[in-house]
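The instructor's notes for this session suggest beginning with a concrete chain rather than abstract definitions. Hand out the sequence below and ask the class to guess, before any prediction is shown, which regions might be ordered.
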Amino acid sequence: MRKTAILMFLLVAVCSAQELKIGRLKYNGGGDWYNDPSAEVNLLKFIGENTFIETQPVYEFVDLSSGNIFAYPILFMTGHGNVVFSENDARKLRTYLTNGGFLYVDDDYGLDKGFRREIKKVFPDKELVEIPFDYGLYHCVFDFNGPPKTHEHDNKPPRGFGIFAEGRLCLYYTYESNPSDGWADPEVHNDPPAKREEALKFGVNIITWALIN
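After discussion, reveal the predicted structure:
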């Protein structure tokens, strides 16, 4: 109870200044960065209804090359295809992430190869490391034994990876998990209600952890 009370206090303090919005990251390379635009809208609604975080449930994208990514405390990136970061893109994203920003990346099937290649431009001296199941992100609001299996891709276990900047998780990446599909409108993927709720609860953990760390 004490842990939950402290967490809620921190969330209220963090989010009291303005309503939370998430920026959808638009990137080059041909991947469908724009798919399932209802995903973060529904997640923000769920967060607003189930936590003390004030949200603005809107879909807003921000162009990595020309937009102001610094206007968003949290960015969301997804897609099925290729990703290309220019050197300027990589430098800008590195500055954002090492100065308090947070990026959640969800492989919607087909993103993995391009993302892993391009994130090395952002952090050439860092590796994506698998996040252990006892890490706080998996237990900060709802308890999870690692990332959920929302959609089946290649019959592999769901995995969560991260990059840390000075001890802070600044990037979290889900592979063979795909919870953001569970955030989309019910008719998009026809997921059962229990599966969608699981995905949305996991999204609450991601956002909460990003805000308080």
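Then share the key points. The helical segments are 2-15, 38-50, 87-97, 112-122, 179-183, 186-189, 193-212. Residues 193-212 form the longest helix (20 residues).
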